[in-house]
């Protein structure tokens, strides 16, 4: 069985255009060894070219989303070996995926596991999940966005606390500080994430992708540049058939039928 399982709509009975990407190393609490990261990158690259899929649910199992980088694999590595792994390219394949990714987190999302979750666009988390950046406790620091994406998500003071103490926080607290989009009872995490993905796949696909792009690009730009980008994208959507369909459906009091055109 592969360390990452892709459940593609073409293999299912439903007509949902959702891919489910599931990390599958239960014996190591889904720790992210090189093989898992290579598989994740391969799958996200493949999905980038896949018009059938409109949203992704990224998940693990009930015990762990992912308990971090594989410490057994990293313990004796040298700087030069870490450099030559060029794992930034593997992470970038996930960051570059243009459609919405919803992370469904149960159990542990620690270190590289939380960094992976922060590559997604929406996080649905279980109340008792444990998330954090414990790298400092094993002599290192976050290396895949823990000091950067986390700070953008929760601000300096929470990011400092989480990274400097290495102490995990639970799902309720993660939601309270803005590290999750929604917190639900543990048993409802996957279902909630899937339902949210389904809602999004009913929206006009071009607008959805432009919204994701505007939010991510705008985060790293000045307000003026972000506003200019948003305005250009907004105006651009008036060239789509879905804009006309959406507005006329509203006026005619019927459900819109978006086609991604
Ligand atoms: N790496 C390798 N194996 C792991 C990891 C891990 N991160 N986490 C758990 N495992 C393994 C354990 O070794 C154990 O295996 P075995 O039965 O063969 O000994 C099995 O999973 C079950 O784990 P535990 O027995 O420890 O389970 P507990 O329920 O007692 O504890 C914890 C669960 C609290 C999650 C504990 O396992 C733990 O602290 N794990 C390590 C968490 C951690 O420090 N993560 C950060 C790693 S560093 C990092 O992510 C750096 C990121 C930098 C860049 C990104 C690269 C991907």
Automatic annotation (TrEMBL):
Gene3D superfamilies: 2-enoyl-CoA Hydratase, Chain A, domain 1 (3.90.226.10), Lyase 2-enoyl-coa Hydratase, Chain A, domain 2 (1.10.12.10). One of its GO terms (molecular function) is hydro-lyase activity. The keyword Zinc does not apply. Keywords: Lyase. It comes from the Bacteria. Pfam families: ECH_1 (PF00378). SUPFAM superfamilies: ClpP/crotonase (SSF52096). GO terms for biological process: fatty acid beta-oxidation. Belongs to the enoyl-CoA hydratase/isomerase family. This is Enoyl-CoA hydratase-related protein.
């Amino acid at each position: 069985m592969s360390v990452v399982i892709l459940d593609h709509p073409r293999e299912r009975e439903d007509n949902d255009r959702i891919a489910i990407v599931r990390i599958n190393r239960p014996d190591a609490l889904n720790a992210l060894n090189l093989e898992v990261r290579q598989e994740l990158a391969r799958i996200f690259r493949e999905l980038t070219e896949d018009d059938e899929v409109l949203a992704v649910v990224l998940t693990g199992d009930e015990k762990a989303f992912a308990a971090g980088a594989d410490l057994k694999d990293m313990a004796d590595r040298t700087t030069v070996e870490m450099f030559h792994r060029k794992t930034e390219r593997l992470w970038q394949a996930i960051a570059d995926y243009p459609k919405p990714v919803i992370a469904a987190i149960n159990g542990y999302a620690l270190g590289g596991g939380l960094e992976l979750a922060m590559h997604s666009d929406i996080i649905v988390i279980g109340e008792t999940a444990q998330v954090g950046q414990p790298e400092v406790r094993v002599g290192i620091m976050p290396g895949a966005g823990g000091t950067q994406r986390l700070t953008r998500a929760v601000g300096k003071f929470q990011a400092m606390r989480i990274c400097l103490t290495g102490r995990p926080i639970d799902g309720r607290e993660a939601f309270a500080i803005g590290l999750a989009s929604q917190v639900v009872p543990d048993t409802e995490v996957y279902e909630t994430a899937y339902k949210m993905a389904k809602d999004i796949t009913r929206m006009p696909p071009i607008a959805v992708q432009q919204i994701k792009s505007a939010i991510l690009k705008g985060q790293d730009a000045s307000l003026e540049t972000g506003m200019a980008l948003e305005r250009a994208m907004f105006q651009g959507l008036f060239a789509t058939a879905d804009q006309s369909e959406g507005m006329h459906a509203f006026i005619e009091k019927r459900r819109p039928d978006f086609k991604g055109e």
